[in-house]
Amino acid sequence: MTKSEIVHQQRPLIVAGIILGLGLSGFIDGILLHQILQWHHMVSTIKPLTNDSNIDLNMVWDGLFHALDFGLTVTGIILLWRAGGRDDVDWSSSTFFGSILIGAGLFDVVEGIINHQILGIHHVKPGTNQLTWDLGFLVFGALLVFVGWIMLQKSKKSY
């Protein structure tokens, strides 16, 4: 089969982008909200930072969270590397960045529903208006998924 006979596909690039988006969004959440702004930590609602034991526990859970983010990011890079070795992958910036936005948005939506709403282990910004902050986080995640999906649709039309 010649290169001109190869059918190009987007799936390997989309999967790599989504996995990278999940990991990168987790890093942004952990670095910005947990460390820089210090609005919350992984279990700060159920174990408030009121004593050394709770601070240590939250630190461990934040570390485990970052380990998960690291694993997702490395997996995304490996998938991207593997896709790069294939002649049948359509290399489109719109496809790749749209997929990253979908992954980042999915991270926010899933993390927001599970950790903020169902488990209640932390909130985006606890205290006054915490539900507003949590809902804003969910809306922002959904918006990222929507914009990413639009980018994917536009990249499909370019065939």
What report would you give on this structure?
The chain has one domain (9-157). The protein has four helices and no strands. It has helices spanning 11-36, 52-84, 93-118, 130-157. The longest helix is centred in the middle third of the chain and has 33 residues, at 52-84. The radius of gyration is 19 Å and the shape is elongated.
DSSP summary: helix tally: 4
- Give the total of beta strands: 0
- Roughly how much helix do the residues carry, as a percent range? over 70%
Shape descriptor reads elongated
Radius of gyration: 19 Å
End-to-end distance: 20 Å
Primary descriptors:
single chain; 159 residues
How would the blueprint of this fold be written?
Elements: H1 11-36, H2 52-84, H3 93-118, H4 130-157
